[in-house]
Design brief:
The protein is 6% helix and 40% strand. It is built from two helices and 29 strands. It has helices spanning 3-14, 236-245; strands at residues 35-39, 44-45, 47-48, 57-60, 65-66, 71-74, 79-82, 92-101, 111-116, 126-133, 143-147, 154-157, 168-175, 180-185, 188-194, 206-209, 221-230, 253-254, 256-258, 272-277, 286-291, 298-304, 306-310, 319-322, 326-328, 335-336, 340-344, 362-371, 375-385. An eight-stranded antiparallel beta sheet has the order 3-4-7-16-9-10-11-12, with no helix packed on it. A hairpin with an 8-residue loop joins strand 3 and strand 4 (57-60). It is elongated, with a radius of gyration of 24 Å.
């Protein structure tokens, strides 16, 4: 079928002024944060998947992923080995982690990237490194440290001791362009300190989660839920937004359902929509999922910043969106029931004009679909408040 004809029929079926929604596809929104690597501890076994950069890690020491989105470290010999050279070419970086520390001896490592006198793969005495510990041996507070030349490391400290038996969010920011580094705990700025070192001075052949370059330091004991590495500085608002959004991960449901249950379709079921991923704008990780649609009938998703409640002419369902609608109805975005998904590009929501989602925005989503008997219907709707 000719593409223009297909679009005209879709527009007529929906009975909405979609022809007025001209997508300015070449408009660009604000740049997203440069997320290089993301480890959500999904899956099972000993392969820790990097869902962004493809730099998968290996779980060692006897620990295994159990499909729960977390990894338990025994504090004895469990750790994760990530590929080397993750810091190559970086001037700035932000290290972000969600962990539940079990307490114990100081200088355990949340992460430690660098090298040691023992050589690649081995502990010894730390030579160059950037690390984050839930408790240092002097002030008994979370501490970030870097040694990239010379013999004395530079440290940045949190304001209070780490809570145990609860998940804590850390963001360790290395601002090489402005010669400073900062530490945040649970989205709150703790302190910053000047630096005279560069990431290029770190020989990151040993990139470990839960293990130190120093053989005298104990392994991490506790649970990790997410670890991320950005190739830029996250400012205070971005860190706070990420903390508020939470760790997320594959299959994590976000948003609030409303306008349901929908009117049942010819299959006898009410079409349903959910949103998965993360409400953090900087991650650009949102997938819409529609289910319980009539088999073999085409469908696509809609978006709007406004909610509504109206029965469009010719439709069996309720349109739960209002204002300017953004239809995801490019050829690659149309699917057939009984289910379908769409990875939403948060930099390009197809309203008129095209908009990028911003922290603080609330967007609403719904799925329109054709039904048997030359009619159409809609799912319920989901509202996502972005951080």
């Amino acid at each position: 079928m000719d593409r223009a004809l297909r679009k005209s029929r879709l527009d007529a079926s929906l009975r909405l002024p979609l022809t007025a929604i001209v997508c300015a596809w070449f408009m660009s929104g604000p740049a997203q944060a440069q997320l290089l690597h993301r480890y959500s501890f999904d899956g099972s076994g000993t392969v820790l998947v990097d869902s962004v950069g493809g730099a998968d890690g290996t779980v060692l020491g006897g620990a295994t992923l159990g499909g729960t989105g977390t990894l338990i470290f025994d504090g004895v010999d469990d750790y994760v080995e990530l590929p080397p050279n993750l810091l190559t070419g970086l001037v700035d970086a932000t290290f972000e982690a969600w962990v539940d520390w079990g307490g114990g001896v100081a200088w355990q490592r949340i992460f430690d990237f660098g090298d040691s006198s023992g050589g690649p793969g081995n502990q010894g005495n730390g030579l160059t490194y950037i690390v984050l510990t839930p408790e240092d041996g002097t002030n008994a507070v979370p501490t970030g440290a870097v040694l990239a030349g010379g013999t004395t490391s530079i440290k940045v400290y949190a304001n209070s001791a780490t809570a145990t038996a609860t998940m804590v969010h850390y963001a360790f920011v290395f601002d090489g362009a402005n010669d400073s580094m900062s530490l945040y705990v649970d989205g709150i700025f703790q302190s910053s300190t000047p630096i005279t070192m560069d990431l290029s001075g770190i020989n990151d052949v040993n990139n470990w989660l839960g293990r130190s370059q120093w053989s005298a330091n104990p392994n991490f004991g506790g649970t990790m839920t997410e670890f991320r590495l950005y190739g830029e500085v996250l400012d205070a608002s971005a860190v706070a937004g990420s903390y508020a959004a939470g760790p997320g991960g594959a299959g994590s449901v976000v948003g609030t359902s409303y306008c349901g249950p929908a009117i049942p379709n010819s299959s006898g079921l009410a079409g349903a929509i959910t949103a998965e991923g993360s409400s953090a704008v900087l991650l650009n990780d949102l997938t819409l999922v529609a289910d319980q649609l009539p088999p073999g009938q085409f469908a696509f998703f809609l978006s709007s910043q406004t909610q509504g409640f109206v029965n469009p002419p010719g439709s069996s369902g309720i349109l739960c969106l209002g204002g300017g609608l953004g239809p995801f109805h490019q050829q690659s975005q149309i699917f057939q029931g009984p289910s379908g998904t769409l990875a939403v590009d948060l930099t390009s929501i197809p309203v008129n004009p095209v908009q990028a989602v911003l922290p603080g925005d609330t967007w609403n989503f719904q799925c329109w679909y054709r039904d048997i008997g030359n009619t159409n219907n809609l799912t319920d709707a989901v509202s996502v408040a972005f951080q």
